[in-house]
Write a structure and sequence with these properties.
It contains eight helices and seven strands, in the order αααββαββαβααββα. It is of the alpha/beta class and 229 residues long.
């Protein structure tokens, strides 16, 4: 099992290395609204923000200079583009850019005020392990902001997702990812709770998902969620 996961992880890394030269051109306009929505959500809290799967750094110029941004990605080719962007645009609010596996983040517990992961969770071999890591390095009272594909439960889109799944995997994506995987993860976690799920373009195939980390214990977290509702 561990060998299979490592093979899949290497495949994802190679896939995104191949995407690096054209990623902004192909996906920049398509995912612009989703990126902006995730940044707006993150900056409601602000502070020290970790962007997992920072890629070419296309989001970095849009963060307020009052925040400190750390970006990680499994693809060195993607990060090379991000570093060029930081240097050319003089993005002094970017604290660090490092090669790192989303499932094994090299940060201490409670290191960040916000975790942002755009189009990442469905690409990693073990999504639940990545989510566990996000929760671990997030400070109490902080938020995890995801932009993620959520599978259709029925209908033509569900059929199409099933048919294209093998090809999508080779490109570094997972088309089939039911909402229940998120709810199951929250149910077994003692640290996080769901705040929001909101459909995002293109065509509502993706969702903005926000999780909060209990400030001190479950009662405080539930009170915060009740207040937000």
């Amino acid at each position: 099992m561990a060998v299979a996961i490592e093979i899949e992880r290497n495949a994802v890394e190679r896939a995104y290395d191949r995407w690096a030269p054209v990623y902004d051109l192909v996906f920049g306009p398509v995912f612009e609204r989703g990126r902006r929505a995730s940044i707006i959500a993150a900056e409601r809290i602000g502070g020290r923000i970790l962007e997992v799967g920072v890629g070419t750094g296309i989001s970095l110029p849009d963060y307020s200079r009052s925040n400190r941004i750390v970006g990680v990605d499994i693809s060195e080719a993607m990060l090379s583009k991000a570093r060029e962007r930081v240097q050319e645009s003089k993005l002094e609010h970017v604290e660090a850019l490092d090669v790192m596996d989303a499932e094994r983040l090299n940060f201490q517990d409670d290191s960040f005020d916000v975790i942002v992961a755009q189009y990442v969770v469905t690409a990693v071999p073990n999504p639940e392990a990545a989510l566990d890591e996000f929760a671990r390095v997030l400070k109490p009272g902080g938020e995890i902001i995801l932009l993620s594909r959520v599978s259709a439960e029925a209908g033509p889109r569900r059929t199409v997702e099933h048919l294209v799944a093998p090809v999508a995997r080779r490109l570094g994506w997972r088309t089939e990812f039911p909402w229940q995987r998120y709810t199951n993860w929250v149910a077994r976690s003692e640290r996080v709770y769901l705040i929001e799920r909101r459909a995002m373009p293109p065509l509502g195939h993706f969702s903005l998902i926000r999780f909060g980390k209990y400030p001190a214990g479950p009662l405080e977290g539930q009170a915060r969620l009740a207040a937000a509702v």
